[in-house]
Design goal:
Blueprint: H1 22-29, H2 114-124, H3 146-150, H4 157-160, E1 176-182, H5 189-198, E2 204-207, H6 209-214, H7 216-224, E3 228-231, H8 244-262, E4 268-269, H9 278-286, E5 290-291, E6 296-298, E7 301-302, H10 317-333, E8 338-340, H11 347-362, E9 369-371, H12 373-376, H13 429-433, H14 438-450
Parallel strand pairs: 1-2, 1-8, 1-9, 2-3, 4-5
Antiparallel strand pairs: 6-7
Helix pairs in contact: 1-10, 2-8, 5-11, 8-9, 10-11
The protein binds zinc ion.
Residues 182-183, 232, 236, 272, 422-423 line the site of zinc ion (ZN).
Region (Disordered): 392-423
Signal peptide: 1-17
Transmembrane segments: 433-456
């Protein structure tokens, strides 16, 4: 997918014309939008252009043949000094990352380790009061947790859309896109990075700790290239289902492995599935992490392309592109910017982004300003990291504690391979259906990527 082959043409109609219809407009004004329904079998959309080298839509399916991935355009030697953000420490030696110094991949972390025990003490000493809510059950499914849904003091975003002042769900400036990719790094991240480089785009990568262990060099290339790095937990569980100590462990280990690979600690995190309530928020605050979710203008109009479900076959490429049409249409008429959920774990998600969504987005009229989340908040990239944040434009949340460094990066060689994890339900399904069945979806995804059977705890 070379830059020269990306030709900006007048509107290329890929399917039947798409109109910003009454459903969408009503979704903005009165919150009654009815997005595309999962039972539909055909979907229409229009794109301004597509990438000439795009994978055909008919090939972006769950059983797609594995494609060769691009190799990283640039890798960085240990000790390299980041140039995209001032004051950053030298890059650690990723080859010294020892998986044996970290929890098992893709399992909720144990809480009896010295590291987690220290983080538990840090949180207790932070001064932040942790609400006494019982963990949710059944993977956080809304229908199985009626009392939690009804409890407004819990402010459970997943099932009610409730947000607090500290949640980042949008960008303040109209047409500004807080650009994010979740669940990597993965081999397909390299393809995405190539497209982003060719088009001078920077994004925010919310990295899963277990994937960082597997692909530390890719995380380093993301960071050194000026992309923002955020936390997306260690094993990608719905956080409201965990105990306080487990949440602390999931956030703590993912912070730590990113610090060990990059030399800096993220100050932002995205809860897997957007599953956050006031208990999770308080623990994150005590650990110096600000939540970033995604834009939701009505229960049915969330800014989620549902690209994650391409891999499993729960959705189709044309449905994802229709979702994208709805989202870009809504993004054009709301008074703020927006944050969109996309993923870089599977080739199907990357294929639809680089082949279709991003080429269309780059030609959008009026133009989108596409930037990492930290920049869409009108803050410098340095404010994305604990060690570089000077507290002037980005004062840390009250009660934040320094990242604990109970263990050194370790020794020996990094691991290879291993699975992935995902995020999100369909754009209409998040708010209405919660999270049922996602554990099984991720277990399947992990098994496919890792070539083995892994179960989500
Ligand atoms: Zn995710």
């Amino acid at each position: 997918m070379s830059k020269s082959s990306f030709v900006c043409l007048a509107a290329v109609t890929v399917a039947a014309a798409y109109n910003i219809d009454a459903r969408q407009v009503s979704g903005v004004s009165v919150g009654t939008s009815a997005g595309p329904q999962p039972t539909q079998t055909s979907f229409s959309f229009t794109l301004a252009t597509t990438n000439p080298t795009a994978i055909p839509l008919a090939s972006i399916v769950s059983n797609a043949a594995t494609q060769a991935t691009h190799t990283l355009a640039t890798t960085y030697a240990p000790g390299s000094i980041p140039t995209v953000v001032s004051g950053a420490p030298p890059l650690p030696n990723a080859a010294l990352l020892a998986p044996s110094n970290y929890p098992a991949l893709d399992k909720v972390v144990p809480t009896d380790s010295p590291e987690v025990q220290q983080w538990i003490k840090d949180v207790a000493n932070s001064g932040v009061t942790i609400p006494d809510f019982a963990p949710t059950v059944d993977s956080g499914a809304c229908g199985s947790n009626a009392a939690a849904v009804a409890d407004t003091t819990r402010c459970w975003w997943t099932c009610t859309g409730c947000v607090t002042a500290t949640d980042i769900t949008t960008c303040p400036n109209k047409l500004t896109w807080g650009f994010t990719y979740d669940d990597g790094p993965s081999p397909y991240t390299e393809d995405l990075l190539q497209f982003l480089d060719q088009n001078n785009l920077k994004t925010t990568f919310f990295a899963v700790g277990s994937r960082v262990i597997s692909f530390p060099n890719i995380l380093q290339t993301e960071y050194m290239g000026g992309h923002q790095i955020g936390v997306h937990t260690w094993s990608h569980p719905p956080l409201t289902t965990l105990t306080n100590d487990q949440i602390i462990g999931e956030l703590g280990w993912s912070k730590k492995v990113i610090k060990d690979v990059l030399g800096v600690t993220p100050l932002h995190f995205r809860p897997p599935f957007g599953d956050i309530d006031n208990r999770v928020r308080a623990i994150a605050q005590a650990m110096g992490l600000t939540p970033v979710i995604w834009t939701r203008i009505s229960p049915q109009a969330t800014f989620d392309t549902d690209d994650f479900d391409l891999h499993s076959g729960l959705t189709t490429a044309s449905h994802v592109l229709q979702n994208w049409n709805y989202i870009s249409g809504n993004a054009s008429i709301i008074d703020t910017g927006f944050i969109l959920l996309e993923h870089d774990l599977f080739q199907q998600s990357v294929d639809i982004a680089t082949g279709y969504i991003l080429p269309d987005a780059l030609l959008h009229q009026p133009p989108f300003k596409i930037v990492p989340v930290i920049e869409c908040q009108n803050k410098p990239l340095s404010d994305a990291y604990l060690e570089l944040n000077d507290n002037s434009s980005n004062p840390l949340p009250s009660g934040s504690v320094p990242s604990s460094s109970a263990n050194a990066a370790g020794s020996s060689t990094g691991s290879t391979g291993s699975g992935g994890s995902g995020s999100s339900k369909g754009s209409a399904a998040v708010a209405t259906a919660g999270l049922p069945g996602l554990g099984a979806v991720f277990a399947l995804a992990l098994a496919i990527l890792a070539g083995t059977t892994l179960l989500m705890s």
